[in-house]
Amino acid sequence: MTLRTAVVGTGKLGAVHARVLSAASGSKLIGVVDVDAKAAARVAKSSRTSVLRGIDEVAERANAAVVAVPTSAHFEVASRLLEAGVPCLVEKPLAQTPEQGRALVALARQVGVPLMVGHVERFNPVVLALLEHDLDPGFLEAQRVSPFSFRSSDVGVVLDMMIHDIDLILHLVRSPLSGVHAVGVGVLGEHEDMANARLTFESGAVANVTASRVALKTERKLRLFARDTYVTLDFQKKSGRIVRLADNVRARIAEGSLTLDGMTPLEATARRLVKTTSLKVRGKQEPLALEDQEFLDAVREGRDPAVTGEHGVLAMETAARVVASIRENFRKPED
Predict the structure, then answer these.
(1) Which residues contact 215 (CB under 8 A, 6 or more apart)?
(2) What is the mean pLDDT of residues 209-225?
(3) Positive or negative: CA dihedral 221, 94, 154, 335
(4) pLDDT tens track for 44-69
(5) CB-CB contact of 67 with 118 (8 Å)
(6) CA 201 from chain center: how many Å?
């Protein structure tokens, strides 16, 4: 079954979605929409499709739509499409507030159509490789920094960038959040441009998350510690390494036949007490292409997508707690 697809919003991400959907299996891109007529025409031309008249035409003609407008317009656009029975993939964050996000989830459930959120890092091949190991992390450290892009300026760095790692950490830890402590500062505008958050979970797991959109370089990495295991991921390079204790090391330490005191990592490796291997990344497909294909498959099969509206709301609720903690801990300089 070929789905008639449309993209609402032709900024940077919207243009990528249009390119992907114009070539995706089972998708016929019927058109794009944007308030900027020149941008819409440019993306339509490069994706070999048409410029649609507006949201109403998308609602009338499309079987599935991607919403890639500014965050402040997510709720209005997605609501209109969902009310018309059009399944939606809404770019992250799902909406501007958790209340709006919950309303979108309720509407999608009421109408009976899939609602997916664009947490694209879930589809990074190195993340998919990590999930095959079914780890129970105790500590995670995420860093996501980049130069200012002059897009998504209607929200702060928490909803713009950190929310990627928040969603991924929630997915990996799978335990209710018990506490948040965060600090942040605005550099170029009214919203925070740099932020650091410490998330604690009922399972005892802890995550330290840093995001900045005023850095001099781009870096997206995650370190994860679980029992007998250390993992490091590079999202940009789509690569990762996993370090594990050899199978008999704990038993030998317990019986007193082995001690690691004073031993360097190099010595431990040479003695085969730890095993270091590269994560088996199956291909280096474009994460957004995998995301869009999952959306199409979910619509075609009438099932929940891998990243549901509920997942999007949970990430937003966590992000809201981070922002609230930043505001609580902010101290203005004394006169």
Answers:
(1) 145, 146, 147
(2) 94
(3) negative
(4) 999 999 999 999 999 999 999 999 99
(5) no
(6) 19
Report pLDDT digits (tens) over 150-208: 665 678 999 999 999 999 999 999 999 999 999 999 887 788 999 999 999 999 999 99
DSSP 263-296: --HHHHHHTTSEEEEE--------HHHHHHHHHH
**How far is CA 313 from its chain centroid?**
12
Distances (CA, A) of 281 to 131, 239, 246, 284: 11, 7, 22, 7
Cα separation, 260 vs 300, whole angstroms: 55
Kindly list the strands in the beta sheet with 27-33, ordered across the sheet, starting from the edge strand earlier in the chain: 27-33, 3-8, 64-67, 88-91, 115-118
pTM, to two decimals: 0.89
- Please name which of 127, 82, 122, 125 lies closest in space to residue 100, comparing C-alpha atoms: 82
- Amino acid (one-letter) located at 134: D
**Strand boundaries in the chain, DSSP class E:** 3-8, 27-33, 64-67, 88-91, 115-118, 139-145, 177-185, 194-201, 206-212, 219-226, 229-234, 239-245, 274-278
Residue 273 corresponds to which tokens in the numbers above?
């007490």
SS3 content of the chain, % helix, strand, coil (to 5): 40, 25, 35
**For residues 278 and 241, is the Cβ–Cβ distance under 8 A?**
yes
Amino acid at 74: H
**Structural domains of the chain, ranges and CATH numbers in brackets:** 3-118+287-306 (3.40.50.720), 122-285+321-326 (3.30.360.10)
